[in-house]
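[worker-b] picked up task from shared queue
[worker-b] task type: protein-ligand structure
[worker-b] ligand name resolved to zinc ion; SMILES cross-checked against name lookup, match
[worker-b] sequence length check passed
[worker-b] input payload:
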Amino acid sequence: MKRNRYVHQFAELIPEHLEQGVLYVSLTYSTTVHLCMCGCGHEVTNPLSPQQWKLIFDGRQVSLTPSVGSWGFDCESHYWLENGEVEWAPAWSRKRIAAGREATRRRIKEAIDDPPRRQPEPDSNTAKKSLWARTRSAVGRRT
Ligand SMILES: [Zn+2]
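[worker-b] inference finished, payload out:
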């Protein structure tokens, strides 16, 4: 059954037995793990890094950004985890899924090929902005 709410739990180590509806956050390992919110029982791991997911903690609830897309599973679930609420996205077409995956691969590859510390400081952020806008529309993430 699809869940509409979740709670979070900060843990140094991700427990062996995961509970439904709990987003486990390990700051030590910069990762989050939860059971797919559709109830299929698959473990979903979302590593926290500049190219992958960001965790927002407002002191009460945590949110993950961008959205979580489990296209490797049969359920192909896609949702946002925001302030304790699971917001389900409409099913994506195969084409958009492929585009989203490609964009993620590209971001990771760019980061590996071109580590930030070797990049010169940009004069303006115009170029950065347009790349950001392109990436956003490609993966359909929401802020
Ligand atoms: Zn699922």
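[worker-b] attaching auto-annotations
[worker-b] The mean pLDDT is 84.
[worker-b] releasing lock
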